[in-house]
Amino acid sequence: MKPNETNPTAKEDVTIKKSTIKYASSLIIIFVLGIIAGGLFFGMKTPASDGVSANVAGERVIKYINENLVQAGESATLVSTEDLGGLYKINTLYQDNKLAVYCDKDGTILFVSQPLLLNETQKTAPAASTVIPKEDKTTAELFVMAFCPYGVQAEQTMKSVVDAIGSKADIKVRFIASVDGTTADSVQSLHGTNEAMEDLRQLCIMKYYPDKYWSYLMNINENCYPLTHDAAALDICWKAAAQNQSIDASKIDTCSKGQEGMDLMKLDEAAANKYSVSGSPTLVINGVVYNGARTADAFQNAICLGFNSPPAECGQVINATAVAAPQGGCGA
C-alpha cells in the first residue's frame, strides 16, 4: 500500500527513550495500514443475538489480526480481555509491544483505537497558534523518521511547497534517531535498522546531491516504502532510485556506513534535542515548532511568514489536489 493512500487521525507522539527505542517494532505501521485497508469488520457475517464472551471475542480478534494485519511469519498474542460495558478491550502483545484494541460484544467489529463515547464531552484544548520569527531567508526543518507513515505523507505535502518556493527558503528534512555508538549499526530509529540506514543514506544524498534529493525521496516513498521489512529488496530498491537520479550509489553507501554518515546523524540528533522533537513529523520554522495544519497551503503560508520580505514565489498557488498530511505521528 502506498503511503499517500492513508488518512489516519490518531495522534501518537511521545518522547523517544534510548533504552527502549531498539525494542520498538513495526506493529505501529502495520496497524495503521490495517486501519487504512478498511479491516474493521471481521468474524460472523451477522451479529449473535446475545453477543459472545470476552474470551471468544479476544480469540477472534487475535485470529483476525494474525491473518490480516501483521507481518508475514509473525504473530500477535492475546494477553487479556476487559469488559468495558458496551465493548471489550483486547490487550495484545506483538514483538514485545503491548497494544490495546477494542471489539464490539458481538465479535464482529474491531476498533484499532479507543472509540469515543458520544455521551461524554471531549475536552480538547484548542491548537496553539505559531508565531514565526522573521528572517531574511526562512529555514524550515521537517523532522521525520524515514518509514513513519505520517512522516512520509508530510514529506509528500512539503514537496509541493518545495516546488513552489524553490531555493528561496531553506527547506530541509531532518531525522529523529539516537546515536548510541560510533558505527552505523548503533543508530537507533523507531522502525528498526532498515529505517536507520535509510535515514543515513538520505543525509548523505542531501550532502552530495542536494538538487536531486527531493526527486530521490519521492521515488523512495513511492516504490521502496512498502519494502520496509525486507532488507534485501530495500537495498535493490534504493539503489534503483539513486540510479534513476544519476546518484552514485556506491558513494552514498560508503558515506552512510562510515564516520561521515555518523557525523551527519549526530547533527540531526542534536537539532532534535535542541527543539525537544520526539514525534514524526514535526516542522520547525526559524527555530520555532509549527503547530498548524498539515496542508501544502498551510506549510507554504507559515514558511512565507518567516521572511522579512516574502519573495514573489510565496504568491504561487499550491496545487489544489495536493493531499493533506494526517494529524498523527510516530513516536516511542
Short description:
By secondary structure, the protein is α+β, with helices and mostly antiparallel strands. The protein has helices spanning 18-21, 27-36, 54-68, 149-165, 193-208, 213-224, 231-244, 249-257, 259-274, 296-305, and strands at 77-83, 87-94, 97-104, 110-111, 139-144, 170-175, 178-179, 187-188, 282-285, 288-289.
Describe the structure.
- With 332 residues, the protein is α+β, with helices and mostly antiparallel strands.
- It has two domains: 24-111, no CATH class; 139-315, Glutaredoxin (3-Layer(aba) Sandwich), CATH 3.40.30.10.
- 37% of the residues lie in helices and 14% in strands.
- It has ten helices and ten strands.
- It has helices at residues 18-21, 27-36, 54-68, 149-165, 193-208, 213-224, 231-244, 249-257, 259-274, 296-305, and strands spanning 77-83, 87-94, 97-104, 110-111, 139-144, 170-175, 178-179, 187-188, 282-285, 288-289.
- The strands form three sheets. It has a four-stranded antiparallel β-sheet, covered by helices on one side.
- Strand 5, helix 4 and strand 6 form a beta-alpha-beta unit.
- Helix 4 (149-165) packs across helix 10 (296-305), helix 5 (193-208) crosses helix 9 and helix 6 (213-224) runs antiparallel to helix 7.
- The longest helix is centred in the middle third of the chain and has 17 residues, at 149-165.
- The protein starts with 17 loop residues before the first helix and ends in a 27-residue tail after the last helix.
- The model is unreliable at 1-41, 43-49 and 122-128 (pLDDT under 50).
